From TrEMBL:
Belongs to the binding-protein-dependent transport system permease family. LivHM subfamily. This is Branched-chain amino acid ABC transporter permease. It holds the Pfam family BPD_transp_2. GO terms for cellular component: plasma membrane. It is a multi-pass membrane protein. CDD domains: TM_PBP1_LivH_like. It is found in: Cell membrane. Keywords: Amino-acid transport, Cell membrane, Membrane, Transmembrane, Transmembrane helix, Transport. The chain crosses the membrane at residues 173-192, 199-219, 225-248, 300-324, 363-382, 394-417, 429-446.
Amino acid sequence: MNIGGFAVRAAVVLVLPVWIGVAACADVEAVQRRTCESLLPVIEPAGTRITIQKTEPDPRRAGNVRVFYHAERPDPDAVSPDPVDAAITCAFGGSGFEAGKADLIGLETPDGVLSEIRLQMLKRFWLSDLGAVSEAMRQVEWAPEARPAGLLAVSGAHGFLLQQLVNAGAPSALYALLALAYSLVYGLLGRINLAFGDLAMLGAYATVLGIAGGLTLGAGAPGLLLPFALLFAISVTAAWSGAIGLGIFRPLAARGAQPLLVATIGVSLALQEFVGRVQGVKERWLPPILNEPHLLFGGAYEVVVTTMQMLVVGGVSVAVLLVLVGMRRSRFGRDWRAMADDAAMAALLGVDQDRTLTATFQLAGALAAVAGVVITTLYGGTSFHMGTIIGLKALVAAIVGGIGSLPGAVLGGLLIGLAETLWSAYHPIVWRDAVIMMLLVVFLVLRPEGLFGTRAALEEKSARP
């Protein structure tokens, strides 16, 4: 087997769920629907009661959206409001995967087509003020047939809880990936690599550069560039991780845990300073990618999920499953388990330890790269110092699940992501990170082996020279 062969094959397969999802799940009308409907409160006179009756594509031109509505305009000279049925047509700069699909380029109101100057003022002073738009849309009503009802109608409290469970999918996926990377290395060597958070940061920057470079060259919309950015991030981060494994862990693994712990802290700081000097200290941002909301549950509190959230959860689930199955059935997985159980006996039986170590770090680096892609595509921003807290919370997830246990690491990531999201929703968010770190203390005191680990295995790993 070539060095990192399993890691490379797994990394390539990681792209497939994203590519299929981008092709199948993109809703090209959702962002246009929201933009066009949000223009109604500013088009109609103040105090008008607006009821949206129907929103549909304009058959006259692809990318245009028409909103039909009923308006009860206040009339100071009449006893009752003046009811009017009207429609507006919004023209956008593209459709499908085209980059300009969210750019409003024209508007036809009941009074005629808006001039270019008035359109620009509308975009600048109305659409850009999200708070004002949100407040105004609270006064807009929808006819029963105008708004999708979702799978079920739920109460406000239940809807809010369901929304938090949906929101927990992304951080859970992030922490599961990094916790799995921690456990791959710890399970093999009994050592912790504290640089995985910064490797995820490196993957996030590689994603930003890949998408930004493609946009500069006119290669397509961000959604179409995402699979190529993912491959670029995996290539960069896996190479760095493999070099860390060969250059630092191989010579220091036999010298005890303390030298390696200090060395990985140094690697973490070096990566931060490297990226900070090369890319600058300012945060890098990407435009929202595939963030169209899809209604899951209706009722007093609507529960929505975006296309990107579905892609992340689906893609990460497939990636994690591939790793877990591959570690049980592939030759690399057998070599990894043999070396983890008894490195000296594995060497006598012909296991190439350098190759297995390098492949392990490459696979762990690929997982960190995917975590970086998750950060960038879902949250938009990336900074050179963000890896520290993300890496520490992923380490908490690995310890909670049972560090060294691959399924336990995944479960720990799910639990930490869920706990973080629920705390942020129901309690002061400023205490969120402190609470997660307290979980680390609780588990180290009460159950240091974690949920899936065993005390004997933990003691054996810790006792390695």
